[in-house]
């Protein structure tokens, strides 16, 4: 472990609050989709990945791709507190002409952004290409990609899963943000009940379950991944809107913008 988990939890709460505050001031949605995956993305940036403000252009850096691009406010905020750019820049979030839009911009326009995502189903194929490229070039960096559970309705996800396993991409780590919602509906209302664990195993991946809003459990899983030739799938059992009780599992927060009172209430809950 490179970072104290208690300290990390405080930072996670701060990031969650800033996501809510930014949503209010910029009048942009998707805060609940951000809150379900903030913990695990923070964990990756602080505990696992070799990527920082000094090496983000190095060919040997680890890569992180946010395939569910609508959670960009979480990624933007995390990159800011990791020092990739000044946090004040996020005051432009959602404004005309700003690079901080509702989805990640083109790579290299902002430090730390590896792929412009948001049209769902594209981040994983890009990650597979990067991981395969690393193998061909005999590079040892790792590629991490966060996919939405609803996003698994895209055919490109399964094509990518087959290709990754066929090419022994043990340098590829997929995290599914399993918050049980996709936009306006429950996953099982749209796609029926899917056993993600069974499905990915049948595609010859190593599969792990984790409580996705509990960093000590996330830490255990990442410290006990098998060493073999298979790509890894981490099914992150998460709660949409996690961290603020009145937002949790209330799908109105997929699109709703918080009032200033709700921002202040969230601040008390998250920051005390
Ligand atoms: Mg979802």
Bound heterogens, unique: magnesium ion
**Proportion of strand residues:** 5-15%
Total helical elements: 9
Q: What is the CATH topology descriptor?
A: Rossmann fold
Kindly give the count of domains. Answer: 1
CATH architecture: 3-Layer(aba) Sandwich
Summarize the structure.
The chain has 272 residues and is α/β, with parallel strands linked by helices. It has nine helices and seven strands.
Task: Describe this entry's structure for a reader.
- The chain is of the alpha/beta class and 272 residues long.
- The chain has a single domain, classed as 3-Layer(aba) Sandwich (Rossmann fold).
- The chain has helices spanning 5-26, 31-48, 72-81, 123-136, 155-166, 187-191, 196-202, 215-222, 260-271; strands spanning 63-66, 143-148, 172-178, 181-182, 185-186, 206-211, 232-237.
- Helix 5 links the parallel strand 2 (143-148) and strand 3.
- Helix 1 (5-26) packs antiparallel against helix 2 (31-48), helix 1 crosses helix 3 and helix 2 runs parallel beside helix 3 (72-81).
- The chain starts with a helix and ends with a helix.
- The model has no long low-confidence stretch (mean pLDDT 95).
